[in-house]
Amino acid sequence: MPSAHHAPAQATTRDVSSRRRLSTILSAYFCREFILPLFCALLAFAVLFLINDVFDDLPDFLNQDIPGSVVMRYFLAKQPANLINVIPISVLLAASFMVMMMGKNSELTAMRAAGLSLGSCAWPVWLVASIMCLTVFAIGESWGPAGAKAAHDIRRQWVDKDDDRLTHIAFANAQQRRDWFIEELQQNDTAQNVIVRQYRPDGSTDWVLNALNAEYHADTWTFVAGDIKRYDERGALVVGEPEFFHQHQESFAEAPSDIRGHSKAWDLLTIRELRAVLNGNILPASQIQRLLKVMFWHHLCFPLASLVGALFGIALTIAQERSGVMKGFATAVGMLVLFYLVGQFTMVMGKNGWLPAFAAGALPSLAFTAGGIFTMWRKQ
User: Fold this and answer.
1) What stretches pass through the bilayer (predicted)?
2) Which pLDDT band, with edges at 50, 70 and 90, does 241 fall under?
3) Full strand arrangement of the beta sheet holding 220-230
4) What is the crossing angle of helices 123-141 and 24-62, to 10°?
5) Backbone angles phi, psi at 217, to 5 degrees
6) What percent of the chain is modeled with pLDDT above 90?
7) Where would I find the H helices in 201-321?
8) CA 66, 71, 73, 75: dihedral to nearest 10 degrees?
9) pLDDT at residue number 374
10) Which residues pair with 220 in a beta bridge?
11) Is 237 helix (H, G, I), strand (E, B) or coil?
12) Rounded distance between C-alpha atoms, residue 308 and residue 320, angstroms
């Protein structure tokens, strides 16, 4: 008879545990305990990055007669790009702080005693970390490059008045079916290392012009020291020597002002723009092509850093003793620092051709994300 009452009691316990696992109150508690320190960390690191920018760049502006509004716009324009690095470390610190406080109050012990899984209960953390990943991606594709370009233009106009060059310019004239690559474009409308690719209406390459120098004057481009390679309808190079020239003139519709107004530095290109340049097939050398491919994969996968911070911040900070908690927190910070160092190291190797572009740009983010998921799984 007692055993008959014992079985329903066990079932009731399991039902209560199941309801707790899906409890809205518990989920809201996790969310609150994570978002508050996350907001504080974001604010603190944003201010620190701003102060660092002020200490680095303000002396350059003080030496010039520059309006205060321009200086303020310059520093504000730099902040969106800073957030790309601020957000991941803030997520890690918030996750670690949440676990430390819950461990200090024995809440983790109580949840484990009730049969609850920290990984499933912390789903609000994974949700917020995923939103932060999307936020980093959005910043990298819009506000970051736009702000960095605005800051660069302000500095070049007001501080570096003697530096009027634009480098590594890729420009496409879709209406005329013509692509340009210019290594360096001066404000006096002279250019160095110029490549012009002309396409047929069907999209095949008609000819490619390479020139050491070029100059624009009176609606005419004058190309100096170069050659012209012609292609047939199948895209194959026409048999024969390229047409070498000492000087060649073309009345193209593109003026230097048009190219200058629609061009960006390589490090300011978004994923969509990087893909368009790579597919345009106007790159001057394999080294530049490797650089852009590495940047493409890096921009695409780096936003996972926020999820990496959340995973290691929770998994490594869980410990029974206080010394173990601090050791785990230090290890979590070290893992994120290692993530940045490995990412920069592989990017350098990829740009120099020692690693494939995917491995150099994407593999560190994917590997550390997988490592964080595995570490969290082991802590369950």
Assistant:
1) 29-51, 83-103, 115-139, 296-316, 328-348, 354-377
2) confident
3) 166-173, 178-185, 190-199, 205-217, 220-230, 243-250
4) 30
5) -155, 130
6) 50
7) 256-261, 271-280, 286-301, 305-315
8) 150
9) 94
10) 217
11) strand
12) 23
